[in-house]
Structures are given as structure tokens and as C-alpha cells.
User: Fold this.
Amino acid sequence: MKRTKIIDIFSPELIGTEVSVMGWVRTRRGNKHVQFLAINDGSTIKNLQVVIDMAKFTDDDLRGVTTGSSVHVTGRLVESMGKGQTCEVQAETLKLFGTADPETYPLQKKGHTLEFLREKAHLRPRTNTFGAILRVRSTLAFAIHKFFNDRGFVYAHPPIITCSDCEGAGEMFHLTNLNIAEPPRTQEGEVDYSQDFFGKRANLTVSGQLNAENFAMAFGDVYTFGPTFRAENSNTQRHAAEFWMIEPEMAFCDLAGDMDVAEAMIKHIIRTVVEKCPQEMAFFNSFVDKGLMERLEHVASSDFGRVSYTEAVELLKKNNDKFDYKVEWGCDRLSGTGQLHRGNQNGHFDCGASGTGNPAARFYPCQQSGCLYGDHQQQ
Amino acid sequence: MKRTKIIDIFSPELIGTEVSVMGWVRTRRGNKHVQFLAINDGSTIKNLQVVIDMAKFTDDDLRGVTTGSSVHVTGRLVESMGKGQTCEVQAETLKLFGTADPETYPLQKKGHTLEFLREKAHLRPRTNTFGAILRVRSTLAFAIHKFFNDRGFVYAHPPIITCSDCEGAGEMFHLTNLNIAEPPRTQEGEVDYSQDFFGKRANLTVSGQLNAENFAMAFGDVYTFGPTFRAENSNTQRHAAEFWMIEPEMAFCDLAGDMDVAEAMIKHIIRTVVEKCPQEMAFFNSFVDKGLMERLEHVASSDFGRVSYTEAVELLKKNNDKFDYKVEWGCDRLSGTGQLHRGNQNGHFDCGASGTGNPAARFYPCQQSGCLYGDHQQQ
Assistant:
């Protein structure tokens, strides 16, 4: 019998049929007459209830079926009487694939803090929160690729290892295959990088932009989407050592066209994730961020505000008494300290906004107020 | 007037309309009465011919319009009398965006060797060959994402920087932000990596498999698709220092299911690239590999052969006189030296084949005979 993924099992036409499901046991409960398993196979945040009539099974059959173990169940899918679930499987066969020692398996039924799960990186994808985050991340990644692919953008893969040093060596990770304990030396006593793997000093890229710009000068519309590295010794949310970054570059495009693409992309990925991950987004909306869905719907259905740099500075200066870093014409990161969000609370932009006009001003995403985006440079 | 990309311009309904096109000049020729530009905007390998009636333009208007320069042309799209092209633009306006000095611009009309283009990495995407390669690569990348996304695989992004050392330190790139000229030392005189960025020695990943397996134990079906690194000091086609790798991992799947997915993926990406990149594939078929299209069609429409390791060894041993590295039961890379291809010439597998049965045998892609794939390990 062909296996059915749990995400596909909650469809009315399967009711009454024999199904074959595989997954990990989230919980087991019951009594000597009937046992209930909640199993999850990672295809959805929802668990499937399996009902085990102990008249058909022995205690031996269920030995080792504990939280974290993996099982194969076949049986009839029936409508469920239990609240919060539409159907359940009445087990005919049950096979144990792998066990999880109840004494040591860390993910028992109780809730876990994010700090605890931080130390269980190999298991946390099995939790509701990380499972939802990672399925949403995957859905977002595909939505981004689809957005650019549908518009004829060429996906470029700039090299990660580079000998370019475009943003200052202090921020880059250095790569070497020399013996650091005793590196080879030149006659002058310097480290002799000519003996290193690439014959010179190499780094991890801090940006694919240089390559993407070359590609744009050949293909017109291109984008990168890959890992990027910063060796800034600063432990904040803004300074990850390794992160995935999207860098679109467009030839024959002006700033208005650039903002059109950015706005369309934000709306596209919001609509996609709401459509493709309804259970995960409902979970976040209930347990992580109560206004999430309403805010996303609003951003996806609104025209983004557009503001010149000078206008933005004027708007923000009115709130300078609330800011740690005062705003004035010339400062280059308006949202770096949250000003645009706090400025927004005066009602100027209830959705997204993007900026124009300053040669070097950067408008960064601002979670609370929707989205502000870009790294616009005047042309 | 809205710009039309050149890939969209060769459609019958645009004939007779005014169009706006932007691109780079590939060639310019003509006389004092009429000038012809071939322009390309990277959206397709095809150039668009622009006809410039010199009764409407002055020599000054065309100053700087040379190979490599970028232009904006508006005018009427008409059917073309020229052979090999369906339509052309009769220029009404011409604006020069950027110039390319004919004395120094390297990509003049003559053909260039790959060796020459190797030194012009920033410009070679503008050539027919690299343009086609990179558009096909982009199309393949999206086809791979779509294949896995459509099947509910979660796209995992394993870390590139890792402190795991799973395949032997000799093959890994080492990362450090210590001062290599004078690294900090422990009391014992060893390099003190506790003072390095991550507080210990870090490397670039040689495989996302370890993480992908954890993910598979939570999501069932997952894949990775990102850059991977090998510091093998071996300058062959098989040993790139940096390459993008796809690593699918499936829980609750057997080897037959694994081979089904691999075969379906190969066929999917072949069909996609043939459908989405017809011009590029025709170019490769004409100028790079004359049997390409026929071979791809054959692979996409055939059932792949499947062979046990023992059977493969038996088949190959018959050709041991042709092999540099003799085949015998126990050797782990059957295609590493091209044996499977040469064995295939005896007609055993005219399409793809995948292997089963040996605990550690790897079947690698073999371009000439279609495809052999996988890194199957008996379960």
C-alpha cells in the first residue's frame, strides 16, 4: 500500500479507505483497552491521531512506541469524534522503525524554551515552532525564486571564496590552508600566501553584488540568492556571521522600476506563504505574534508609500526626542535604530515605504511597521 | 513607452507596432545611407536587428555606437527581409547609454577561445556561449527547486561554516580571523583557537548531508542546494574547490523509491531546459555537441536501467583490458575512470542506469552515456 503523507490525509475523499502512514510519535496516551498515538511526519504541523484497539494488539506490539519513536501504521481512515481533528486512523498494523529512549529523549510532551532547543539543534526541527519556521523558510525561498524566474531574471551564483576585498578586510572571514602554527614566510618574514591554496590570500564573500552587476551588464535582469558572510564581532540580530541574501540587479531600470519590483516581491512572498502555509501561519498568529495575519493581509493589499530621503528626514526629526541616535539630513541609516518605525506611529506610513533621493541612504526592513526596503543609490 | 525585452519581441502580434528596446550593440555595419545594429539584451541568445535610415540621423547621433556600447532604440517593428531573422526595428530615436572604446573593448566581432574568455570573466556573460550556459544554469536551478517543491520537499540551508570535521581535515578549507603572522599561543605553544572568531577552529562545509539527515528525521523529505567546498589540491574537472550541490534526503523511503525520485528529477530538468531554453539548446546542439538534443530526448523518454552492483561489476570486468583502473568486486567508484561509459558501449544501458546492492558503491553521472547517478548506500 502506498504511503500517504499526513498533509494529504485530511481530505474528505480518503475517509473510509485504508491508508498507510509513517511518522514520529509525538504523544502516546490511553488505557488497557485503547491507546492513542499522535504522529507527525513533518509534512504539516498537524498531527494524525492513531487509535489502537488493544483487543487487536498485545503490549509487546507497542513496546518501544514512545514519544520520538518512528512508526508505520496501516488502517482505516475514519471521521474523528475527538475535538480539533477531522479524521483518525484505526490501526490494523503497527510497525516500529526506530525507538527513542524515554529516559534520555529530550523532546518530551511538555513545552520547551527556545534557549533549551538552541542546544538541541539536531532535534528542534521536530518541534511545532521550528518545524513551522523551517517549512515557512522553505516556502519563502521557493516563492523568491519563482518571483524572479517568472520575470525572466537570471539566477547568478557568485563565488563564495573570493580574493576581492571590497568592503574592508576587518569584516571578512579569512580562508587559509597554510599551517597556522608555522606558516611559510617570505624572505622579509611576512606570511607567504603564495604557498596558500589559491596562491594568494582568500576570503569569504561579503556580497555577490560585484558579480551580479557584471551579470546585469550582460543579462539585464539578474539576482543572487545564496549564503553571505560577515566577520563583524558584534552579537546582535543585525550581525549574523552567515546568512542568505537576495541581491537583484537590473540594467535599463530606474529607481521607480526598482521600487516596483521590490514592492511586488514583498507582496508575492506574503501571498504565497499565506496560501501555502496556512497551518503554520495560523500557529504563529496564535502563539507567537497575535496581529500577524492581519498585518500581512494589510501589507499585501496596500500600495506602499514612497518618500524622498529629505521628506523622511523631515518626518523623523519631529520625533528626535524619542531617538537614541538623532536624525539629521546626511545620516545614512534611517531605520538602523528603529526611527522609521517610531516615526511611522504618527500615521505617515501604515504599510511599507521606500525611499529615494539620497546618494547613500539605506532603508532597511522594519518588522513592526510592515516593510521598508532597499539600498537605493541615486544614479 | 514601455520597454520590450528582446525575447518577447519576436511575436507576430507586435509587427507594425512601435517598440522600445534597450541592449548592448553586438555589431554595427552599413554605409552612408543605412546602418544596421545587432543588439542583444541578455534575455535571449538572439540579437535584434535595428535599421537606421541615415536620412533621419546624423553621424553625430551614432558617434560612440560601437560593439559593446549600450543603447535605447525606439521605432516600428517590421517583418525583416534579412535571412535568419523574422523582424527588425526601424529606428525613430536612438540614445546612447554607455560607450565601449573600440581600441580596448575585448569582445570584438571575431570568435574568442574559451582560454581568452577565462581572463575576461566580467565580460564573458555577454558572449553567446557563456550567455547560453548561464541562462541554462539558471533554468536548471529553478527546475530543480520546482521539482522538489512540487513534491513537498523542505529546502534546508545547512550552515557553510562548520566546526564538524566529518570527512578529514585534509580536504577542508580552514577559516580563521587570527593574525596568522603572529597567532596567539596557548601555554603549550599551540595556536590558541579559543581566541578565534568562533572560539574554536572552523572550516567550510564539505557536505550538507549531516544537517540534511537531521532535517529528514523531522520533515521526511528534504533537500539542500547550495555551495559546497573541497580543498583537494587536485586540478581536475572532478575537483572544484567550490561547487553547488543538491542533496536530497528522504525518511521512510527505500532504495527503489530513491531511484524513482532521481530518475524523475533527471527527466524533469531535461524536459524543462528543452522547453524553456530552445534557442540555447539549439546553439549547443549546433556548435558544441552535435548529438545533444537527440540524446536528451532519448534519456527523457526512456526507462532507466537498474543494475545491482554485482551485475555492474560483472559487465564491466569484460572490458577490463580497456580500463586504466581494473574493476573488481569491492572497488567503490565504478564510473570514476569512465568504465561505465566504456562498458555501456557494449549496449547494456543505452540510457541511464542506477545501481543497487553494494554498501559503499557510488554511481556518478556519466555524460557520454546519459546518466548514472547517486551515492547509494545499502540500508
Notes: Confidence is low (pLDDT under 50) at residues 336-347, 358-379 of chain A.
